Amino acid sequence: MKPEDILPTYERQARAFDLARAKTLFERPWLDRMLGYTPQTGGKRHVLDLGCGSGRPIAQYLSDRRCEVTGVDGAAAMVALFQQNLPKARAIRADMRGLDLGESFDAVIAWDSFFHLAAEDQRAMFATFARHLTPRGTLLFTTGPDAGEAIGSVEHETVYHASLSPDEYRRLMADQGIEVIAFTPEDPGCTGHSVWLARKTG
Length: 202
Known about the structure:
Number of domains: 1
CATH topology: Rossmann fold
CATH architecture: 3-Layer(aba) Sandwich
CATH class: Alpha Beta
Keywords: Methyltransferase, Transferase
Organism: Celeribacter ethanolicus
Structural class: alpha/beta
GO molecular function, one term: methyltransferase activity
Shape: globular
Strand content: 25-35%
Pfam families: Methyltransf_25 (PF13649)
CATH superfamily: Vaccinia Virus protein VP39
Order of helices and strands: HHEHEHEEHEEEHEE
Helix content: 25-40%
Domain Methyltransferase: 47-137
Number of helices: 6
């Protein structure tokens, strides 16, 4: 299993993944915490969801809280499901690597998506995050607890995961003017996810 196999896998498994994906919103404490720090542009919070999948439950939850959500996913089948589940939201088929939408957002999320990238692609993503964040905009993403590679599964197909060390993530964010608000490795209140919340300083 290699990082380049991720998008074809999710293309094949989009509908099954959407049906199986937990909808309990165990992510809610982190989403609410993010919203508490997120500025509003023009009276609304504009959120970029990278690796948005079907939009359920995260983009749906944010939309219900009057955020304007733009979903980006590299799998066409996922984008189609996102549009079906959130018909009023914007959906874009694109690879997050090297993305440049030419606009900025009050928050950027890469939940359970960023960690499918190879280490070098992860390092390059922090410039992409910064490019799409407004001043004081927030960044929420998940990683592994420490540096390494792992193989997981999506509907009986294997999928690649990678992580850098927490110290390297901190350095990469600092280089882009992004300050860490919180990092909880293997958060027991979030089904063991390792979660970062950060904010662009200027």
